[in-house]
Write a structure and sequence with these properties.
The protein is built from six helices and twelve strands. It has 229 residues and is an alpha+beta fold. The protein folds into two domains: 78 residues, Elongation Factor Tu (Ef-tu), domain 3; 93 residues, Elongation Factor Tu (Ef-tu), domain 3 (Beta Barrel), CATH 2.40.30.
């Protein structure tokens, strides 16, 4: 299957370090230091996911690249608020026809959530323990999140283990395996930090179609004939 734009899977390839986030009259510019194994495969104009946000790589050097942040990106993501030295997750697009290891991720962040907790299930064995991640989402974002469904947090493809309403929104929990904890920016986050969220595109399409579906009183013979029933 061919896709008309860059597509990711939410399997983080490596992490990078923010060198600078520079506001200017023409917009905001971010520079990320990254391993050469990733940077050497980038060409000017290529897409790269930075903590779940699809950006266009510019000014590529031996171990870093830059990108411009549009106002929409600043409004919806955490990227404009990152400090020098912050760790970000990096993923290059998945070539058409490659197996999907995670789920379909567009790199189009819907908004941010708040980290509530990231706790080891076995505190006495933190190097080998699974972890439990808890975040809270606005009710609007949570509309497209379903239990046992997929969600992208900071660019990481995760499965929703539990959902429940709170007075501040909807709490989402996910299991984190040791490899994911060690290999991504999750290990650097603290409760209260904002995280980028992309809900499952298939859930969004399903919700959109459900909203368009006519109510029973609209199901007239004329409607059915006009729509090929």
């Amino acid at each position: 299957m061919l896709y008309p734009e860059a597509m990711f899977t939410g399997l983080i390839e490596t992490t990078g370090t923010v060198v600078s986030v520079t506001p200017s009259a023409g917009g905001t510019h971010i520079t990320v230091e990254a391993p050469g194994s990733l940077v050497t495969r980038l060409r000017t104009g290529d897409s790269v996911a930075v903590s779940g946000t699809c950006l266009t790589a510019l000014e590529i050097a031996a171990n870093r690249f830059s990108a411009d942040l549009a106002q929409e990106t600043l409004d919806r993501t955490t990227l404009g608020r990152l400090k020098t030295g912050a760790t970000v997750n990096l993923e290059l697009p998945t070539p058409a026809g490659s197996p999907l290891g995670g789920h379909v991720v567009q790199g189009h962040v819907d908004g941010t959530g708040t980290l509530l907790a990231l706790d080891p299930l076995h505190p006495d064995q933190v190097h080998t323990s699974d972890w439990r991640l808890g975040i809270v989402l606005s009710n609007e974002l949570a509309r497209n999140v379903v239990q046992q469904g997929s969600i992208t947090i900071e660019g990481i493809s995760l499965t929703v283990a539990r959902l429940h309403a709170t007075e501040h929104g909807v709490q989402v929990e996910a299991a984190i395996i040791p490899h994911t904890y060690k290999s991504t920016s999750l290990r650097t986050l603290q409760p209260g930090d904002q995280v980028n969220i992309e809900t499952d595109v298939l859930a969004r399409y399903a919700a959109q179609q459900a909203e368009k579906r006519p109510r029973a009183e609209w199901l007239t013979t004329a409607y059915l004939l006009a729509n090929g029933y």
